[in-house]
Design brief:
Length: 208
């Protein structure tokens, strides 16, 4: 049996708790707000078909707008929404003038998501959308920024959002009719708490 996205979100909410006094672990960046990146940046400014075109949120992903990004990944100040099936086209355009990128690697920022805005993929920083705002640890819950994600998550892939923001998160990353499997993501060893007005992912003490 398929479970609607909204039910999956509710199941995840019921299974997650809120931390309070644990040490902070990097949750993917500060409150910056790179906000949103106009879809299809690059050379396109007049619409039409290209690596930015989309019909659903599920087609979109985030990529660096520059050739190298930050060790190969997007950041709030260097991101663009791309149709995941046409990523090669976007990377070819971004690196049209070959340069020597640093030999390094970095984890992707789970708070940056691709969404279909009209017919164009856009890049959104969930933090800048207000989804992580909080006033107390009880406001925060663990979540995943991928639609229908039932995987095992670590402090580098999980996100923490306000419990009232599940609907908005689903609007950005899923589709109303998306059928999700009857499962929930695993956040073992993690908790969500409120730090400096922002929901944050923390690791729980071993055995705690």
């Amino acid at each position: 049996m398929r479970v609607p996205t909204t039910v999956l979100m509710a199941m995840a909410l019921a299974m997650t708790g809120c931390g309070s006094s644990h040490d902070r672990v990097d949750s993917g960046g500060g409150t910056d707000a790179g906000g949103r990146s106009d879809a299809g940046g690059g050379t396109d400014a007049g619409g039409g078909d290209g690596w930015w075109t989309c019909t659903t949120n599920l087609q979109c992903m985030v990529a660096p707008e520059s050739c190298c990004g930050a060790c190969g990944v997007a950041t709030p100040s260097d991101m663009v929404g791309v149709n995941r099936e046409r990523l090669t086209e976007q990377r070819s355009e971004a690196c049209a003038d070959p340069i020597a990128c640093p030999e390094c690697a970095a984890p992707e920022d789970p708070y940056l998501v691709g969404t279909c805005d009209g017919s164009r993929c856009g890049a959104v920083d969930i933090r800048a959308e207000g989804l992580t705002a909080c006033s107390a640890p009880a406001d925060c819950v663990l979540a995943t920024s991928r639609c229908c994600d039932c995987g095992v998550h670590t402090v580098r892939t999980a996100i923490a959002i306000n419990s009232s923001s599940f609907g908005r998160l689903s609007e950005l990353t899923c589709e109303p009719s998306t059928p999700c499997p009857p499962c929930v993501p695993s956040f073992d060893g993690l908790a969500a708490t409120c730090m400096a007005g922002m929901c944050t992912v923390v690791e729980t003490p071993t055995g705690g």
